[in-house]
Amino acid sequence: MKRIIVCVKPVPDPKHWDQVSMDPITQILRREGIPTIMNPLDRHALEEALKIKETQGTEVVLLSMAPPFATSILREGLARGADWAVLLSDPAFAGSDTLATAHILAAGFQWIGEPELVFCGNSSIDGSTAHIPSQLAEFLDLPNVMHVVGLDWLDENHMIITQKIERGHTKLKASPPILLSVRKELNKPRYIPFTGIMAAESKEIKVLSHANLGLDHTLIGLEGSPTKMAGLEIRRFERERERLEGSLEEIVQSLVDKIQLYGII
Questions:
Q1: Long-range pairs for 207-212 at CB < 8 Å and ≥24 separation?
Q2: Are 161 and 144 in contact (CB under 8 A)?
């Protein structure tokens, strides 16, 4: 196997989700100034690619469509062990829904060259649509298996995929080329070694614009996005508080009554 491509996405840090807002005109999320992290399931996708690299000596390439600040997320992936990265970044891509994003990512694949294996996280924590893997596989003309929780190699050209389904699991035998989207049960991402952080600084991140990819403008950005955000509501919940007063015996009895009322025990 010569090349594995891993799709990674920067997502807003959940600790700062209260800062997310919506543009009232474009109806797209405003993420400016909000700290980002690598989508957690993408770390599991990368980990599986790195495990294959260690046994088969394959090249691991990261691919992301995001604003320029995403280079820090790609550096994390390079520090974990990926060989190089490609960032698809252009103002023309802003507002792309999953369909337009899949078109852009597919163009990035064509620029890199055909891989034998593609890994994606099953979904992202900001959108959680789980659309991208199947859409991308369609554009790349690759078979796609989602909800992957196990991957065992029979040899370099044959694998057994364990897939999570509604009431259990199913096992599939497959061969590359194929696109797999993974769940967190698949593996445990490795810690980033200091040597990896140092090595990542010298690894290449190639930044490609709309001009480099040559995509039809009607397929990208807001113009190429049939999905529109209807609204955004951030709900805040606070615990109800009540002060119990009276003698010690009365307070204890009141507390016991409330515990029974709310079914706590």
A1: 207/68, 207/71, 207/86, 207/87, 207/89, 208/86, 208/87, 208/88, 208/89, 208/108, 208/111, 209/89, 209/90, 210/90, 210/92, 210/93, 211/90, 212/111
A2: no
> pLDDT by residue for the chain (265 residues), tens digit each?
689 999 999 988 777 666 666 666 665 666 666 788 999 999 999 999 999 999 999 999 999 999 998 999 999 999 999 999 999 999 999 888 899 999 999 999 999 998 999 999 999 888 778 899 999 999 999 999 999 999 999 998 999 999 999 889 999 999 999 999 999 999 999 999 899 999 999 999 999 999 999 898 888 988 888 877 666 666 666 777 888 888 998 888 888 888 887 776 6
Question: Are 76 and 40 within 8 A, CB to CB?
Answer: no
Question: Measured at the alpha carbon of residue 125, what is the angle toward residues 175 and 33, in degrees to the nearest 5?
Answer: 125
How many CA atoms does the CB half-sphere of 210 hold within 13 Å?
16
Tell the CATH superfamily of the 3-219 domain: HUPs (3.40.50.620)
Per DSSP, the three-state class of 59 is: strand
| In contact, 117 and 177? CB cutoff 8 Å | yes
Which position has the token pair 């797209």?
28
In sequence order, the 6+-apart residues with CB closer than 8 A to the CB of 168 are none
Structure token pair of residue 9: 């996405």
How far apart are the C-alpha atoms of 26 and 141, rounded to whole Å?
32
Instruction: Give me the residue spans of the domains in the chain.
Output: 3-219
